[in-house]
Amino acid sequence: MGCITKHYLNEFSILGVWKIEEDLNALLDLVLLDSDEKKKYKGFSSNSRKLEFLSVRALLSELIGRDAKIVYNKNNKPFLNDGSRFISISHSHKLTAILLSTNEKVGIDLEYMSTNIAAFAFKFINRKEKVTKELEERRYHLYIHWCAKEALYKICDKEGISIRNNITIDPFEVGESGEIKGHVRTNKINESFDLYYSKYDNYAIVWTKKNYETLQEEPNQTEKKK
Fold first, then answer.
1. Interhelix angle for 47-64 vs 35-43, to 10°?
2. Residue 179, C-beta contacts closer than 8 angstroms, at least 6 positions apart
3. Dihedral, CA of residue 89, residue 92, residue 94 and residue 99, to nearest 10
4. What is the pLDDT of residues 46-84, one digit of tens each?
5. Residue closest to 203 by CA, chosen among 169, 172, 176
6. How far is CA 133 from CA 30, 53, 163, 164, 203, in A?
């Protein structure tokens, strides 16, 4: 199927989602891999990991062109090699998502809702957070919390953040889609964020973006690695 959405959030930001229905050869035809990418691709032992790798690059090509290249810093955080945009990437099961912005830091997370997330909710839900008791909505509500916290963890790019203790999502009534508020509180960070969630088939997707300067500055090119 390829790209199922290419949504311009504003003049600076793009959100794209790719549904993986192609085989490896079909995806390889859609991307231009450099020597480092080819080496990394060949190093994956599973076809599922190869499909994820190619789908990210195919989606990036669809969003901003085939010349765009992803590099990673020492913490495996993705960047564009030309530094033209902030980028956040997520993939689960058959979906891949990318959020890009030229002027704001970004975070996105998606999850295929297949597990009994209630069984381990105590690991990421804190006492300030409220989750519906309605059984039909509870699983989705929990997944929104989980994805929101992952998105905030990514945008903050800080080691040592506890998803349960340092990130809090304000109470909200769950719907098919909506806007929620999240907060990150540590001894170095005191920030609030607007987050947006939606459901696609059996997936929960949450993203956020913000122009802020109190968090850690992005590493320079000399700290990045292929």
1. 150
2. 194, 195, 196, 197
3. -20
4. 999 999 999 999 999 999 998 899 998 877 889 999 999
5. 176
6. 45, 38, 22, 20, 20
Task: Provide the Cα torsion 99, 106, 162, 119; round to 10°.
Answer: -30
Q: Residue 217 and residue 220: Cα distance in Å, rounded?
A: 9
Distance CA 74, CA 159 (A): 12
CATH superfamily of 2-103: 4'-phosphopantetheinyl transferase domain (3.90.470.20)
pLDDT band of 1, cuts 50, 70, 90? low
Measured over the CA atoms of residue 57, residue 63, residue 67 and residue 69, the dihedral's sign is: negative
Q: Which structure tokens are listed for 136?
A: 């039909």
Whether the predicted pLDDT of 168 surpasses 50: yes
pLDDT digits (tens, 9 = 90+) for 107-124: 999 999 998 999 999 999
Q: Is the pLDDT of residue 38 over 50?
A: yes
**Closest Cα to residue 90, out of 29, 177, 155, 42?**
155
Domain edges within the chain: 2-103, 109-210
Q: Is the pLDDT of residue 222 over 60?
A: no
Distance of alpha carbon 220 from alpha carbon 85, whole angstroms: 14
pLDDT digits (tens, 9 = 90+) for 183-212: 999 998 999 999 999 999 999 999 999 986
- Write out the two tokens for 7: 């949504």
Q: Exposed e or buried b for every residue in 135-156, given b needs 16+ CB within 10 A?
A: eeebbbbbbbbbbbbbbbbbbb
